[in-house]
Amino acid sequence: MPSLGRLHLITDTRPGRDPLAVLRAALPVARAELVVQVRVTDDATDREAYDLARRVVALCARYDATCLVNDRLHVALAVGAAGGHVGADDLPAGAARRVLGATAVLGATAREPGTAAEAVAAGASYLGVGPCNATSTKDGLPAPIGPAGVRAVAAAVNVPVVAIGGVTAADVPALLAAGAYGVAVVGALSGAADPARATAELLGALGC
């Protein structure tokens, strides 16, 4: 299984955003510390998801970065990604593990210790935990759990916990202190005037 970087970048495919431009800025800075999660909007076709994921895999390969595909595990397999990530409304972790195989990276979303432990027992390699803060990048999210929520999950599992949801570099020290292994971001990079500098700031906060 590939080593897991500490900074996860989730592609922002909302109108007016250019996920590949952000990725091209972040990759030379983060290299193998970057995990790129290809996430597309619900109304995107599988072909659109495939075309984006194929390009992301190729870019990541130049820098030894890891590419995962969110939700659409068949796309992950089709493009040769390192694995996938499943959310609360996607396939259960056990089913996702069967789809991806034993050696793939499998992330699962959790926000409380019980479901986190179940996901790990079912085969999750790491957990995306949150939302830590309020965020506008995804609709229908539950209330933020903050560092205390991250701490509760991290204490219950023995896999890396990646904090997500409105995370900025300023939040990172408290999240690491709560037991997070790394952080996942969307707007902190896709909305940055200088994504390369924002990447460096996040990596510095992570101690990378």
UniProtKB/TrEMBL annotation:
Keyword Metal-binding: yes
A family per Pfam: TMP-TENI
Cofactor note text: Binds 1 Mg(2+) ion per subunit.
Domain Thiamine phosphate synthase/TenI per the UniProt entry, residue ranges: 7-189
Protein name per its UniProtKB record: Thiamine-phosphate synthase
Annotated catalysed reactions: 4-methyl-5-(2-phosphooxyethyl)-thiazole + 4-amino-2-methyl-5-(diphosphooxymethyl)pyrimidine + H(+) = thiamine phosphate + diphosphate; 2-(2-carboxy-4-methylthiazol-5-yl)ethyl phosphate + 4-amino-2-methyl-5-(diphosphooxymethyl)pyrimidine + 2 H(+) = thiamine phosphate + CO2 + diphosphate; 2-[(2R,5Z)-2-carboxy-4-methylthiazol-5(2H)-ylidene]ethyl phosphate + 4-amino-2-methyl-5-(diphosphooxymethyl)pyrimidine + 2 H(+) = thiamine phosphate + CO2 + diphosphate
EC number: 2.5.1.3
Keywords linked to the UniProt accession: Magnesium, Metal-binding, Thiamine biosynthesis, Transferase
Pathway this chain belongs to: Cofactor biosynthesis; thiamine diphosphate biosynthesis; thiamine phosphate from 4-amino-2-methyl-5-diphosphomethylpyrimidine and 4-methyl-5-(2-phosphoethyl)-thiazole: step 1/1
Gene that produces this protein: thiE
Residues that coordinate or bind 2-[(2R,5Z)-2-carboxy-4-methylthiazol-5(2H)-ylidene]ethyl phosphate: T135, S136, T137, G166
InterPro entries in alphabetical order: Aldolase_TIM, ThiamineP_synth_sf, ThiamineP_synth_TenI, TMP_synthase
Residues reported in the UniProt entry to bind Mg(2+): D71, D90
Enzyme class: transferase
